[in-house]
Amino acid sequence: MSRVALRYLALGDSYTIGTGASHPSRNFPSLLAARLEATSGRSVDVSNPAVNGFTTADLIREELPQLTGFRPDLLTVLIGVNDLVTGDTDSAYRRQLERIYGAIRQRLPAGRTTVISIPDFSLAPAAARFGAPPALRARVDAFNRIADELGSAHGFRYLDLVPVSRSGVGQPGWFADDQLHPGDRQYAAWADWLWENLEKDWLLAAHAD
């Protein structure tokens, strides 16, 4: 008898749903799920309730119910860029993340959750409308430090996308046509790097009883 599918819940905003990608199958959660299926031989059901423009408050209201409705085996969370661009303070972001991480920790063992950093979007050609690149980079770094600190406190793994998001600037297809979101090439680079870091743990989860 075949084993039941692994359930992977991807919480987030435009970066998780894959705004800018040429097809939904090219967002990073779909790419990770495909890698896990191919490597483990076990099917993976993905729930990706992320929405372009979502903030932490939106995630709490609209996405967290998936913890009980979908009952994930694996989870990633990448959230905060819209809090940043709308001017939320560090303390406000911290409070919201604590609510999100606390809810996740109540439903899922710590080792099954991965916190993914906000990428460095300041290098996108259209990012300047949100502020000067050095100021944007500083805010990204500040929010990511909070996510890392709180995620570690809850026993979650933290993976920093910033170096990967910077690595292909200037390459064709790195940014989408809107010149703000990642293009297929960048999302693929994210998935490659995330899989390198997640493969061992996710395969253990796939083969667990």
Tell me about this structure.
The relative contact order is 0.17. The protein has helices at residues 14-17, 28-40, 56-63, 66-69, 81-85, 90-107, 133-153, 162-167, 184-207, and strands spanning 6-12, 44-47, 74-78, 113-116, 157-159. Helix content is 49%, strand content 11%. Helix 3 packs parallel to helix 6. It has 209 residues and is of the alpha/beta class. It starts with 5 loop residues before the first strand and ends with a helix. The chain has a five-stranded parallel beta sheet with strand order 2-1-3-4-5, with helices on both faces.
SSE arrangement:
Elements: E1 6-12, H1 14-17, H2 28-40, E2 44-47, H3 56-63, H4 66-69, E3 74-78, H5 81-85, H6 90-107, E4 113-116, H7 133-153, E5 157-159, H8 162-167, H9 184-207
Parallel strand pairs: 1-2, 1-3, 3-4, 4-5
Helix pairs in contact: 2-9, 3-6, 6-7
Q: Brief description of this entry?
A:
With 209 residues, the protein is of the alpha/beta class. It has helices spanning 14-17, 28-40, 56-63, 66-69, 81-85, 90-107, 133-153, 162-167, 184-207, and strands at residues 6-12, 44-47, 74-78, 113-116, 157-159.
